[in-house]
Amino acid sequence: QVQLVESGGGSVQAGGSLRLSCAASGRTFSSYAVGWFRQAPGKERAFVAAISGNGAMTYYSDSSDSVKGRFTISRDNAKNTVYLQMNSLKPEDTALYYCAAYRSYSRPGFSEYEYRYWGQGTQVTVSS
Predict the structure, then answer these.
(1) DSSP track, 65-87
(2) Which residue, 22, 57, 87, 108, shows the most beta carbons closer than 10 Å to its own?
(3) How far apart are CA 109 and CA 53, in angstroms?
(4) Residue 112: strand, helix, or coil
(5) pLDDT, tens digit, for every residue of 12-50?
């Protein structure tokens, strides 16, 4: 069983930065892949980034509102925490951001249906 708690959200102007944290319970956190997803008002929840249990593999969304080159996912297993550093934020990044996890010893998944454990979300609002 893993419990996830997100923090670090807030309001920022376009071009600014935020760092989200996802703190996990449990003693085998390094066995879990972790992903970040976001849901904007009126839209479906969408994949943002994911990282493997040992941190060796990272993936980012390649959708039209790509975060590649602006967001960086990382983890510190000693602290049971995954981070999402978000730079050059845009108004279209405004959303409720969730972290999620599932036990995996391979590459992290892109689909929310692969993830078993979810946090409650943290709101990010970017103004123009």
Answers:
(1) T--TTTEEEEEETTTTEEEEEE-
(2) 22
(3) 12
(4) helix
(5) 999 999 999 999 997 789 999 999 999 999 999 999 999
